[in-house]
Design brief:
mainly alpha, single chain, elongated
């Protein structure tokens, strides 16, 4: 378990016992933000980068939304479930879009294959938490 995960377990606010799903989602979002950023940079380094423009865009959008979701989730003192749900839904959608785009290139680029897998895991973590809220 990450340090952030351990910190979340020390937090006094555990709405209706969903702490484990929050931890899983926070960790998935943090990993996905980093992986998408690396994938975008790797795409820019490829010889056929003109064919990867949409991949770079979806990587960067996903990274930004994952980072935002991560930050909203670790601030657990608020009670605005509607905002949290909207952010989770947006993140899940961005992960799906990025995963789909990276899968298109996964046969030729290992970074896209890995990114697609991480995006799928993050989307699932967001959807799991949404269902628990």
């Amino acid at each position: 378990m990450s340090t952030v995960g351990r910190m979340l377990y020390t937090h006094p606010d555990d709405p209706e016992g969903v702490g484990e799903k929050i931890r899983a989602c926070v960790e998935a979002c943090g990993e996905c933000a980093q992986v998408c950023t690396v994938c975008a940079d790797a795409c820019l380094g490829e010889d056929e980068r003109d064919d990867l423009v949409e991949c770079v865009r979806s990587d960067l959008d996903c990274a930004d939304l994952c980072e935002t979701t991560y930050r909203v989730l670790v601030r657990r003192t608020g009670n605005d479930d509607d905002l949290v749900k909207a952010v989770l839904d947006a993140c899940a959608r961005a992960c799906r879009r990025c995963g789909d785009e990276c899968e298109r290139h996964a046969g030729h680029h290992e970074h896209c294959r890995v990114c697609a897998q991480v995006c799928r895991r993050c989307e699932e973590a967001c959807r799991d938490l949404l269902a628990a809220l």
